[in-house]
Amino acid sequence: MIKRRILLIDDEPGITRLLKLNLEQTGRYEVREENSGKRGLEAAREFKPDLILLDVMMPGMGGGEIAAGIKRDPDLKDIPIIFLTAAVKKEELGASVGKIGGRIYVAKPLDVRGVLHLIERTLGKKGGTTA
Amino acid sequence: MDAPPIKVLLVEDDPDHADSLRELVRETPHFQLTRAGRIEEALRQLESGGFDVAVLDLTLPGRKGLAGYHKLRMAVPAIPVVVLIGPDDEALAFQAVREGAQEYLVKSEFDDRTLWRVLRYAIERKRAEEELRQSAEFFRLISAGVTDLIAVIDRDGKRLYNSPSYQNSLGSAANLQGTNSFQEIHPEDKEKIKQLFQRTIATGVGQRSEYRMLLADGSIRHIESQGSVIKDASGRTSRVVVVSRDITERKQQMETLEKALCDLHRAHQELKATQTRLVESERLEAVSTFAGGIAHEVKNPLQTILLGVDFLKNSLTNAGEDARMVLDEMDNAARRADAVVRGLVEFTAQRKRHMKAQDLSVIVEQVLRSVESELAGQSITLVKELATDLPPVRLDLKTMKHVFLNLLTSAIVAMPDGGHLSVRTYFRRLTDGQQGSRRTRGQSKAGDTFVTVEIEDDGAGVIESKLAGKPNRTFGTEMIRKGAVDLMVLKKVVELYGGTIHITNRMTGGVKVLIMFKAVSKE
Questions:
Q1: What value, to the nearest 5°, has the Cα angle with vertex A77 and ends A73 and A78?
Q2: Please, what CATH class does the domain formed by B354-518 belong to?
Q3: Could you say which residues of chain B have pLDDT below 50?
Q4: CATH value at residue A48
Q5: Alpha-carbon distances of B268 from B100, B255, B264, B410, rounded to whole Å
Q6: Per-residue confidence (pLDDT) for residue B243, from 0 to 100
Q7: What pLDDT score was predicted for residue A82?
Q8: pTM for the complete prediction?
Q9: Nearest-CA distance from A14 to chain B in Å?
């Protein structure tokens, strides 16, 4: 079974490391973590992930900027991005997972099962369209 | 008769008459006689001075009458004048005296002693008249100059004298003479002033008074008067002198000043209230920013712990029962902390807070409307008793709506299969002996009014014991309620806005929440 590649970009190393461990624990994913926006964008080009988990609020280059960079890159533009956000606005994000303006958001604190479910759904959908 | 000689100017055109008079006084040293043949010459001499008296012959042929006298009087008003007349001219003499001549002599009917006495008398009389005239003039000048109203009235209240200053209010002082001095006093004040006047007459002691005058044009003037009495020889009060002052403008100025002072006071109060509100808002802003900042800092470590616990749970498949329990406890604790942090973030989100006087019934009504469909969907019966006369409380509308929405949602979630929700608002004024009750944290005093919102449900689950006050049921295996926002956060938010929250697990099941705020005192 081919492991799908997931790139984690969050400025908090504790979170990326443990999320990486949780994802790898399933045995289905190969995970790479980055803790800055700049390194994250470089890693995307180099690692060519199937999916990116991207923190919205980061010092320096923020999630929005990285996403724009990815969308501009012809090689990367089709990679689905799941945004991780701490700025929960109940009225914006009815549940812990939601879509705003076409973007997929997942609210912090992350619930591992919820994140896994979302990743699988997103990858499955993509796989379905590209197959 | 050692006095210096009287210097006489004799105005006499008949040299014979002049001679006979000169003859009369020749023997005595008491006269120094000068003659002027014509009136014009007399005027010249008199104007150059040095004469004590003028003796004027009125029987000048062809000019009989007072024409010469008038000329002389007009040109030299200060000189005493004695007129000489013929035996049949007494009427003319009286006329001259009426018009200011001091004396008259009938030709050939006097000797030197009589002449001396008459001239001396004329001089003295003229001096006395002059003094009187001067003092009258002096008084006239004073009374014309004063703006105070001076009146002299008799025992019956009739006016004997009014100063010219009365012109401005009651009209010509001359027309006032003899009129009733009470007639212009305002009907409502008249009796009081009459009594005061009677007391002045009876006691001889002048009184001070303030009253209104109703003028002919309908206007009202405020007058301040001070009376004093003039007594006759027997010591009986014969007249009353009243010095008055029109204080209408002063009164108006006082009123304006008082109003200005009142306005100033109000403005000051408003400023103080605004300042208090600003300080209040700033404090809330600062507390919120601080709490929000801390919450953000705690969020990431918490996330790490939660992810770590998840990982460990999945890794330790062969772990013992104890290890699993420890992990579950850690998971619960971390989620609880996370709920608090999320609640904090939610309530401290960046937005302006507006501390305003609000009607809690209106707020509760609005929040109830927003959960109408949930109530209907779960067949929850709502009992609503909202007071329509609540005194206002000061709080931030959005925050409080949020608090009530959370409390109501928590109650609704606890009644998935229907139930009863009762929402009441009411207020109570603390009386003596109720001050410093535990619920109001000792910040209350007698006379303070508290507005209460009471939310009661008969749903499932209980509130954990450290949050719920008495009476408490003994916990069985009931589930502990968890709201979207941690109750502890709600409690702290309510307290931050100066309120108190009191939660009870009802003996018959369900939860009762009381939220109390101190009413704004109206100024």
A1: 155
A2: alpha beta
A3: 435-441, 523
A4: 3.40.50.2300
A5: 73, 20, 6, 45
A6: 92
A7: 92
A8: 0.50
A9: 6
CATH classification (class only), B146-246: alpha beta
Residues from chain A that touch B350, judged by Cβ atoms under 8 A, are none
Q: pLDDT > 90: what percent of chain A?
A: 37
Distance in angstroms (rounded) separating the CA atoms of residues B360 and B342: 26
Contact status, residue A96 vs residue A114, Cβ threshold 8 Å: yes
Q: pLDDT tens-digit profile of B265-296? A: 998 888 888 887 777 777 777 877 888 788 87
User: DSSP 3-state assignment of A77?
Assistant: coil
- What's B256-269 look like in SS3? HHHHHHHHHHHHHH
- Write out the H or E segment, with its range, that includes residue B103: strand B103-106
Q: Which residue has the tokens 């004027």?
A: B56
Sequence-ordered strand ranges (E) for B53-112: 53-57, 81-85, 103-106
For residue B167, the model assigns a pLDDT of: 85
The CATH number of B262-353 is which of 1.25.10, 1.10.287, 1.10.10, 2.30.38? 1.10.287
How do residues B344-361 score in pLDDT, each as one tens digit? 877 776 567 777 888 999
B331 touches chain A (CB under 8 A): no
Residues on chain B touching A25 (C-beta within 8 angstroms):
311, 314-315
Question: Using the beta-carbon criterion (under 8 Å), do B303 and A108 form an inter-chain contact?
Answer: yes
Residue B302 tokens, joined: 């918490």
CB contact under 8 A, B304 and A12: yes
Distance CA(B193)–CA(A130), nearest Å, equals 112
**Which residue ranges in chain A fall short of pLDDT 70?**
87-102, 125-131
Residue bearing tokens 């180099």 = A46
For residues B267 and B286, what is the distance between their CA atoms, to the nearest angstrom? 28
